[in-house]
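Quick illustration for those who missed Monday's session on complexes.
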Amino acid sequence: MAKQLLFIPGPVTCASPVLDAMSQPMIDHRGPEFAALVARIEGGMKPIFGTSGDVVVLGSSGTGGLEAAVSSAFSPGQKVLSCPVGVFGKRLAKIASTYGLDVEMLETPLGSAVDPDALAARLRADAGHAIAGILLTHNETSTGVQNDMAALSAAIGTHPATVIVDSVSGLGASAFEMDAWNFDIVVTASQKALAVPPGAAMVAIGSRGWERVARATLPAFYLDLRKAREFSELGQTPWTPPVSIAYALDVAIARYHAEGAVRVYARHDRYARAIRAFAAAADLRIFSQPGAHSVTVVAMHVPAGLEASKIRAALRDRFDVVLGGGQAELKGKIVRMGTMGDLTPEDVRYGLESFATVLREQGHAAATSAAAIAGRAVLDETLVAAR
Ligand code: PLP
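Prediction with pyridoxal-5'-phosphate bound:
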């Protein structure tokens, strides 16, 4: 199969050394080599989470990490305030209701970020502290919206609810300060900004998070964070881990720190700005509201008269460029272009030029090459910065 340029928001293009790492021989997952490997992964993830607390690795996708968080942190019937801003936030709420929690939704219009004032007002009204948990999404992949987590942290203030954050498609791509923001459990996954194949979830748990987990009584077995902690202390995972993914993660985390978090943040930010500059010049409306833009995925309205599926098919079949479509009620209405993964500025440039060509051919005259040049101008900053 020809190599495709993946601009879907995960799984993403992985660097060759990351993929190569997976061809190493198997080791005893209860032996000293695996203990050293898992210790490097957990230690290397802490600064990315912004925590000095614990990080555990689960053999699951991101959803498993989120289920682990919910099922390990609460007791039957407890009330949680869910703050979804799209499909993935709603899925987190669904996990909570599946476990019998009493889920209240703080509604936000699609395309917007959670309003910190609305969250603060709801929590102020909860004088009796009936709300035991708050469920947040750092980056909502379905709408290209990123919440202002510092502002949400301030809005929560001293409310004692256990705060669980889905940062599956956010962590690593922009600054995240779990400890400073008083988040209790934060979940991410291997196949997003860390640019590793899918297969591992990383869950960070702070000291207050562990206190809550110790008191929680919901049933959990495979995804029980208490077991994950117990085995992490032995340099193991409770169940057979995805050893090859652990090899890849180890290399990817080392590459992340070698590039440096600040450069990684700048790279995602520039790629996202380049795509938005292209969209503005090509008269494609951005779905996320100003101030709520994600750095890992840009969602754009499909121009009137065009079909998302045809745009994506032409890009894939003729240019090996793969964009994401819309999910749920946004299916057919938006296309999404991600910035995560081992993508060079030239890759992004090629992606935008191909996108311009396809849009033009399918009748969107505004997608001139000038639009691609607008994206290119932002990308050129990358080259200047790299010098
Ligand atoms: N949360 C967010 C924000 C996501 O983007 C995704 C996947 O795209 C998930 C959760 C679910 O993760 P997974 O598909 O790894 O289970």
